[in-house]
Design goal:
The structure is a single chain. By secondary structure, the chain is mainly α. It is elongated. The mean pLDDT is 79.
């Protein structure tokens, strides 16, 4: 028995291997997709003051970064445009 493969045998084996990998990845994606819907991510609304925030209320770079990160997180989770009402520093 000889193990001489032709070019087309190798090509066929490569294509079948690629299709098998794509099939396995597709099955993994189909299995994970419903799991994302089972665990809803709900954010609790923050209690805020009535006065809108001004640039003078942001005291340093850390507060600005915190406000931007919170805005981006809100935008990604709710798909609504964020509106920052207040920000305060918590001293530990």
């Amino acid at each position: 028995m000889t193990l001489a493969f032709t070019f087309f045998d190798g090509l066929l084996l490569s294509l079948l291997s690629i299709l098998f990998v794509i099939l396995i990845i597709s099955l993994i994606v189909l299995a994970i997709t419903p799991l994302k819907k089972l665990s809803p991510q709900k954010h609790q609304p923050m209690t805020t003051s009535k006065a809108p925030i001004k640039n003078q209320d942001i005291l340093d770079e850390d507060m600005m970064v915190a406000a931007l990160v919170a805005s981006i997180d809100y935008l990604e989770s709710t798909k609504k445009e964020p509106y920052l009402k207040s920000i305060r520093e918590i001293k530990s």
